[in-house]
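Go through this:
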Amino acid sequence: MNHEPSQLTASRPDFAAIAASIPTGSSVLDLGCGDGSLLRYLKETRNVRGYGVEISDANIEAGIRNGVNVIQADLESGLSGFEENAFDFVILSQTLQATHRTEPLIEEMLRVGRECIVSFPNFGYWKNRLQVIRGNMPVSKDLPFQWYDTPNVHLCTLGDFEMFCDKYKLQILDRHVMTGTTNVSFLPNLLGSMAVYRFRRVS
């Protein structure tokens, strides 16, 4: 289904935060691109060139309808089909938490792209913490699945991700934290429900 840019940013506020980090005309690889909405948004707002990678047949068809180039592949098998530094940016939008082999995938992203962007729901958000204290796994707009049908396998907090970057010597270039469409700068690991990070390997 096609959407106007304003509709997309209302339903996926991380799209605007991702776009803000990408210069006009950049080359982009969108991993786990779903129906291609992010790539379409970036084409319309940033005139990017690029491809999406997706495994689902239905999503590939939706991506084609959205007018984006989609390659069918399993992210867990790596990105061997792409050359080193083939793209300005490699994006993993709300897919990080659903990957099984996170470290190898990030390593491949850094090989293929000059910079990387990830967005993910913050498990440290206060409403998630409150649900855990009450004895339940969190369910929210950003984490919409029940414990028994969730695709998420590696939920993390902002602090967790930044420790990961420190361990693997990744330089965080930008961090954007939000709850809905509201930017969060005060106590972001507690008050922010979604995060977008732009990073690269330390040179």
